[in-house]
Structures are given as structure tokens and as C-alpha cells.
Specification:
The chain is mainly alpha-helical.
């Protein structure tokens, strides 16, 4: 905020940065495009998520365990990686779906054009609907069937009961998911960079990238990012107000019987709809990425003589920076995860045990980055640490610090919940026997919190390995991460190598989630994401 009110040379107060930031129609159009995109994506996510959440939580639809696992697959898939998969599927004329359509009908051009506003809306929605699914299904899981039974006794059918009774009972949770989805959409960078820039329209995040082109105008970028920050803060406060009213759901019969709704043959219709949505987000793009990653030329299909591992070998051992970007991603993510764990555990303990005056202020500061979009955080780090005396721009340290700040709320929320679950009397027993506070923490608290801390570390490490919006504005020639490298390869147009690098990122994420399942529990991601 302060940077947006300063001149670049002297640091004097000025409003000129805001005049420049909003002085051209195309800059205002980019802001309007972002808001329109947020609304359209949110509406589409409602169409995708609500029926699936209702079917999984309340009905006898078959395959619910696999459905939940597939939603998790969509949840952990980086949206920009899904965008690459859909470029391979629905790129004009060359995409697999368009080639199939032209071969089937003899048409001169394909049916789909992913390089469009509707295409971008669709891609973001199929990777954002898990937020709404998680919010809605977690609320539906604790609502009893008493109100629904009453509606059925009065003659309401299944669909009418769902629309008039079930969903209104969990409306605060749905609205909370709507707000999170909208905020994630307007702050997203990767998918718009891959789709909107070739389609020749801008959104806020891609316009901010242009402000960072030479000559860098960080003051103008800061001014342009302020409305995004203000919208985020306002909607976050609205979300907190809504989600704090969880009692609205509990009043409908918490602890009562939750009866499964029998759909009859309609359960297969719901299953078909669910499989279709999940095919869009998981099966089809994963298949396209796999084929391209293992192909000499992705347009030739799955022919035996077209299969190769050369794309992986080239990226890991021959490409000038790709192999280093893989190491950078895991090193920076691991370092940030350990820093987050140490900071959040220390501060959460101070807050919970009230060891310092105004300890609650520390807790507020730990959660504050939650309301700052990654791209705005990157601009703030650039303004604070790029100039002398720090001069950290392009270094590994600035990326690690930015990742630590961005994901600190995740670690703090998990550490706070874990500490609150431990009775202070266990620490007092150690101190009565002559041990100090540090000994009590080391011998009592940390062993009891082990599973929670492992889960918190993984929940920071996983998104940090694929973080793009922050890294894109802070990396240097030797500090590229995998996510940044993916964008660089997309500009070269080599989809085989692009898919190979994306496939490595995807496999690494799946392996890490599998480790989390093994160490912490099969629902560690979805369970913690509800809190």
C-alpha cells in the first residue's frame, strides 16, 4: 500500500501511480475481465459441486469413496497444469477433441477453442469446484435428516426437498465456499497466463506481469493491485462472519440420524454426471499429459513407434535449467515448510499459553497472509527486498521467505489446533517434577503432536512445490522453479517437454500425498482444509 503512494525516485507522496494504473481503458478492462471471470467461474462451480456434494453426502449413489478420492485428485492438481492438459485436448484444430470432431464430421475446423474467455472459465472451474465441494459436503455430513423427513411427509419429492430444505440448511457453508472460489479465481495467475495471453485479453494478474516487464514499474503494479487486496479483505471478512454462524446448521438436528436418500435408478444418472465432471478435471487432462510426455510427437497419438522417455531424460540431464528447476522447487518448498513449522509452532504455543503480553496480536499476524493474494504478496516482497540494502531479488532466500509468509497461516492453524487439544496439566506435571518448560515441550507436547506436525509440514510443502503467482515475480536466472519453467516451456511451444515436466510435478505431488495418507491418515488434506 505504501509503495503505491510513493514516487520511484524520491519516495515522496503521490497519487500519480493510481492515475497511471487506471488511466487506460485496457487496464480497466482487465479489472472488469477478472471480476467477470470470478463471477462466471463461481456460478459454474456451483453447478458442478453442489449436486456432487449432495449425492456423496446424502444419497445411495455408488462409488462414493472413489468419487471423494477423484475430487482430491482435482484438488491437488495445479490449475495451470490442468490448463496444459486442456490445451492438448481442445486447442484449435490440433487438440485431440477437435481432431476427433473433424474426423467424425468432416468439418474444416474444430468445435472447441480453449483460447477464449469461456475456455478459461471452464478450465478454472473444473479445478476450483473442489473448494465448494469440501465446504458443502462437510456441512451436509453433520446435518440430520429430520427436516428432510418432515418435508417428505408433507409431500415434497427428493429434488424439491434438496432445493428447499437441504441446501438452505447449509447455506452459510455454501456462501463461504462461494467467496473462497471467487477470491481464488481473481487472484489466479497460471491458467490466465497460458490461456488469456494467447487469446489477447488481459485479467488483473496478467496485466500486473506487464507492469513488471522492463522497465519495471513496481509502484504502478502496487497501485493496480490495491483493489484486488481490498476486495479480498472485504470478502474474507464476510466469509468469517458467515462461517462463524455454524450453529445455523447444528440447530437442524446435530447428532440426529442421517438417513441415506434412496435415488433408485436416478443414482446412475447422478453417478454419470459426477464421472463426467471428474473426467473433465482428472481423467482426460491426465491422459493427454501422459500421452504427450511419452511421445516423440504428441499429435501422432499412442503409436508404439511414437513412445519415448527422451523428454524426461532431456529435461533432467540435458536442458540447461529444467533439472535445476526441479531441485529448486523441492529445496525451496522443503525449506519454507520447515520455517513455517518452526514459526507457527513457537507462536501458537506463545498464544495458547499466553506467555507474552498481546500474544493474540502475533496470532493475527500469522493469519494475515491468508487475505493477501500470492501475486500481491510478490509485489510487496519485491518492493521491500529488491532494492538496497537487501538486494534479494532473484535469490533463493527471497523465494523461501515469500513461500514461508504465504503458507504461514496453514502451519499456524494446524499448530494452534494441535496445541489446544493438549491439556496444560501434562506440562505442569513435568514442571512439578523439576523439568523446565522446554523439557515439557520436548518430551510431552512434540510426541503428542507428531502426526499433526507432519500433516502441517506436508500441507505447506505440497502447495509450495507448485506455487507460481509468487515465484513468477521473484525468481532469477538460477532460481527458476518447476512452475515457472512450465510457463517458459509453453512459450517455446514444445508440448512434449512441457507435458513431461508437468507430469513429473504431478507424480511428485501424488507421491507426497500418498506419503501423507500413510503417515497421517487418509483424509489429512480434506479434513484440514475444512478447518
Amino acid at each position: 500500500m505504501l509503495t503505491s503512494l510513493e514516487t520511484a525516485d524520491t519516495g515522496e507522496f503521490t497519487l500519480k501511480n493510481y492515475v497511471v494504473a487506471y488511466g487506460r481503458p485496457r487496464y480497466l478492462q482487465a479489472l472488469w475481465n477478472s471480476l467477470s471471470l470470478g463471477v462466471c467461474v463461481t456460478l459454474l462451480c456451483l453447478i458442478f459441486a453442489l449436486p456432487i456434494a449432495w449425492a456423496v453426502s446424502r444419497t445411495d449413489m455408488p462409488g462414493k469413496g472413489i468419487i471423494r478420492l477423484s475430487v482430491l485428485g482435482a484438488f491437488i492438481t495445479p490449475p495451470y497444469l490442468g490448463a496444459i492438459g486442456w490445451i492438448l485436448l481442445a486447442g484449435p484444430n490440433a487438440g485431440w477433441l477437435n481432431k476427433f470432431w473433424m474426423g467424425l464430421t468432416g468439418a474444416d475446423q474444430g468445435l472447441f477453442n480453449i483460447y477464449s474467455f469461456p475456455g478459461l472459465t471452464f478450465i478454472i472451474a473444473i479445478y476450483s469446484f473442489p473448494y465448494l465441494f469440501i465446504f458443502t459436503s462437510s456441512a451436509l455430513d453433520v446435518v440430520s435428516s429430520e427436516m428432510e423427513d418432515a418435508a417428505n411427509i408433507l409431500g415434497a419429492g427428493t429434488v424439491r426437498t434438496m432445493l428447499r430444505v437441504t441446501l438452505p440448511m447449509v447455506m452459510p457453508a455454501i456462501l463461504g465456499g462461494v467467496i473462497v472460489t471467487f477470491l481464488e479465481t481473481i487472484a489466479l495467475f497460471g491458467s490466465p497466463a497460458l490461456i488469456a495471453i494467447p487469446a489477447r485479453f488481459n485479467v488483473v494478474t496478467t496485466q500486473l506481469l506487464q507492469f513488471f516487464s522492463a522497465p519495471v514499474r513496481s509502484e504502478v503494479a502496487a497501485a493496480y493491485a490495491v483493489p484486488l487486496l481490498l476486495i479480498t479483505v472485504v470478502l474474507f471478512l464476510v466469509q468469517r462472519r458467515l462461517t462463524s454462524r455454524r450453529g445455523f446448521v447444528a440447530l437442524t438436528g446435530k447428532g440426529g440420524e442421517r438417513r441415506t436418500i434412496m435415488l433408485g435408478r436416478w443414482r446412475w444418472v447422478m453417478l454419470s454426471y459426477t464421472v463426467m465432471i471428474l473426467s473433465f478435471s482428472v481423467l482426460m487432462p491426465y491422459a493427454a499429459l501422459s500421452q504427450a510426455a511419452l511421445a516423440k510427437a504428441w499429435g501422432r497419438g499412442w503409436a508404439i513407434d511414437n513412445l519415448t522417455l527422451h523428454n524426461f531424460y532431456y529435461l533432467l540431464f540435458q536442458h540447461e535449467t529444467a533439472g535445476r528447476s526441479v531441485l529448486n522447487s523441492f529445496m525451496y518448498a522443503g525449506s519454507a515448510a520447515f520455517l513455517v513449522l518452526g514459526l507457527s509452532l513457537s507462536i501458537a504455543y506463545i498464544v495458547a499459553r499466553r506467555l507474552l503480553p498481546f500474544a493474540s496480536v502475533l496470532g493475527f499476524l500469522c493469519m494475515a497472509p491468508f487475505v493477501v493474494p500470492g501475486i500481491v504478496l510478490a509485489i510487496a516482497f519485491y518492493a521491500a527486498y529488491a532494492p538496497p540494502p537487501f538486494a534479494l531479488y532473484g535469490t533463493a532466500l527471497i523465494l523461501i521467505l515469500a513461500f514461508t509468509t504465504r503458507f504461514l497461516p496453514i502451519g499456524f492453524a494446524n499448530a494452534s489446533a494441535a496445541i489446544r487439544s493438549i491439556n496444560p496439566e501434562m506440562e505442569e506435571a513435568v514442571r512439578i517434577l523439576g523439568g523446565g518448560r522446554l523439557l515439557a515441550v520436548h518430551k510431552v507436547m512434540l510426541p503428542l503432536m507428531k502426526r499433526s506436525l507432519i500433516g502441517a509440514w506436508l500441507l505447506v510443502f505440497i502447495p509450495a512445490t507448485r506455487e507460481l503467482s509468487t515465484a513468477m515475480f521473484l525468481y532469477g536466472p538460477k532460481t527458476r522453479t518447476m512452475s515457472v519453467m512450465l510457463l517458459d516451456l509453453s512459450e517455446e511451444g514444445n508440448f512434449e517437454q512441457l507435458a513431461a515436466l508437468g507430469f513429473m510435478l504431478l507424480v511428485a505431488t501424488i507421491v507426497i500425498v500418498g506419503v501423507g495418507f500413510r503417515l497421517v491418515g487418509s483424509d489429512f488434506m480434506l479434513r484440514r482444509s475444512r478447518s
